[in-house]
Amino acid sequence: MKIEVGDKVRITAEFDLDDVLTDPDTVTAKIVKSNSVEVVPSPTRDSEGVYYIDVDIDVAGRWYAKFLGAGTVFKGLGYTFYVVANRAD
Q1: For 19-74, what is each residue's pLDDT tens digit?
Q2: At 47, which CATH number?
Q3: Is residue 89 assigned to a domain?
Q4: Class of residue 9 by CB neighbours under 10 A (exposed 0-12, middle 13-18, buried 19+)
Q5: Domain region containing 61
Q6: pTM summary value
Q7: Is 39 a member of any domain?
Q8: How many CA atoms lie within 13 A of 34 on its CB side?
């Protein structure tokens, strides 16, 4: 999937305990943009053990997203993705 500046991207994380989707007591997320700016969005619960964040893409380069679940399920999930400048730039 090609991601361009101006896109909105949904990043989803699944938390499980013994292969069963389970809600952690707390879920946090952090985005690090390619220009090193950090954003801390509030994850949205989609269903048991499934959370997401919607990210507005505003700069080209390598981005990093991280979810952290704590409590009932302790798990960290990291994602790296690349953004290209759109043709209008």
Answers
A1: 999 999 999 999 999 999 999 999 999 999 999 999 999 999 999 999 999 999 99
A2: 2.60.40.10
A3: no
A4: middle
A5: 3-84
A6: 0.90
A7: yes
A8: 14
